[in-house]
Amino acid sequence: MTAVSCVRVGVSRGSVPVVHEVDLTVRKGEWLGLVGPNGSGKTTLLHALAGLIPASGEVRIAGVDPQRTGRRATARAVALMPQRPTVPEGVSVRELVRLGRTPHIARFGVESVHDREVVEEVLDRLDLEPLAARPAGALSGGELQRVVLARALAQEPEVLLLDEPTSALDIGHQQQVLDLVDSMRREHGLTVLAAMHDLTSAAQYSERLVLLDGGRVVADGSPAEVLTASRIAQVYGARVEVLHRPGSTPAVLPLPAAGETGNDSAGAGDAGGEGQ
Ligand SMILES: Nc1ncnc2c1ncn2[C@@H]1O[C@H](COP(=O)(O)OP(=O)(O)OP(=O)(O)O)[C@@H](O)[C@H]1O
């Protein structure tokens, strides 16, 4: 079953086209990683899929056309975790997470028992209980990032759009949040589209990667197919080695500039070289 389909999708920012003729299909329950250099159009595409900005072409996501469906109705099926969240002044962490329930609550209606249970469950699953009464505006960057993910999960979406979900997180919290999203995908058939810069992490969690460059899809396939050293050099201008470990997904290792061997070995060399 298809959860997301884009046919010749284009998006302009101001008068400048920044996403060009993107064709994309994502299966229900699939994790699709969106990768590409800065400015390649990842955020723009995610915002168009969430119906936040106009796009040309055809978009269907969780059975709705976000370009022609109201924000509220779209938000009952599609949640976006933004790269740069705005936090309403004075709200607590629990209140911010509760905002995720807004699309499900009738205007002038009150929260149901289910609404309250969902909020408490995501606070618990992300270990946010100890922060729940704190003002959201006074959190660290990483704490806020987990709270904003909690708000998106509280929407109980069919499709979750993640824009750099772990950019502010330490390695332990990166694994915690990506493992949680992955378990929700496996248990509930959640469909995930995640824009990520960490290519090793993107390869680990994504069943498929789509690589954007200059607003166009330049590669679409399994992580091993998309992440080759020559393609990363060409698209990112980066020196890397791609490690293929038995039974595991590819790992992308940055390499030092030619002639440099890294801090430790350079230091050892200066001190008299190896084996002395
Ligand atoms: N509001 C805007 N007005 C004008 N141009 C914009 C706007 N937002 C984005 N752009 C431009 O659109 C292009 C794509 O930006 P976008 O944020 O989608 O890239 P990205 O792949 O998400 O980048 P990054 O990895 O740096 O987050 C960039 O050239 C950017 O400068």
Question: How would you describe the overall organization of this protein?
Answer:
This protein has helices at residues 42-49, 71-75, 93-98, 113-125, 141-154, 171-188, 199-205, 223-226, 229-236, 263-270; strands at 2-13, 16-27, 31-35, 56-61, 78-81, 159-163, 191-195, 208-213, 216-221, 240-243, 251-254. By secondary structure, it is an alpha/beta fold. It has a single domain, classed as Rossmann fold. A six-stranded mixed beta sheet has the order 5-6-7-3-8-9, with helices on both faces. Strands 2-1-4 form a three-stranded antiparallel beta sheet, with helices on one face. Strands 10-11 form a two-stranded antiparallel sheet. Helix 4 packs antiparallel against helix 5 (141-154). The protein starts with a strand and ends in a 6-residue tail after the last helix. Residues 266-276 have low confidence and may be disordered. Bound molecules: adenosine-5'-triphosphate. Residues 13-14, 18, 36, 38-44 line the site of adenosine-5'-triphosphate.
Feature tags:
Rossmann fold, 6-stranded mixed β-sheet, alpha/beta, globular, binds adenosine-5'-triphosphate, 33% helix, 276 residues
Shape call: globular
Poorly predicted ranges (pLDDT <50, ≥5 residues)?
266-276
Q: If you compute it from the alpha carbons, what radius of gyration comes out, rounded to the nearest whole angstrom?
A: 21 Å
Number of domains: 1
User: What's the count of strands?
Assistant: 11
Q: Return the CATH class.
A: Alpha Beta
| Mean of residue pLDDT values | 92
**Which molecules are bound in this entry?**
adenosine-5'-triphosphate
Distance between the termini: 63 Å
Question: Which superfamily, in CATH terms, is the homologous superfamily?
Answer: P-loop containing nucleotide triphosphate hydrolases
Keywords: ATP-binding, Nucleotide-binding, Transport
GO molecular function, one term: ATP binding
InterPro entries: AAA+_ATPase, ABC_transporter-like_ATP-bd, ABC_transporter-like_CS, P-loop_NTPase
Protein name: Iron complex transport system ATP-binding protein
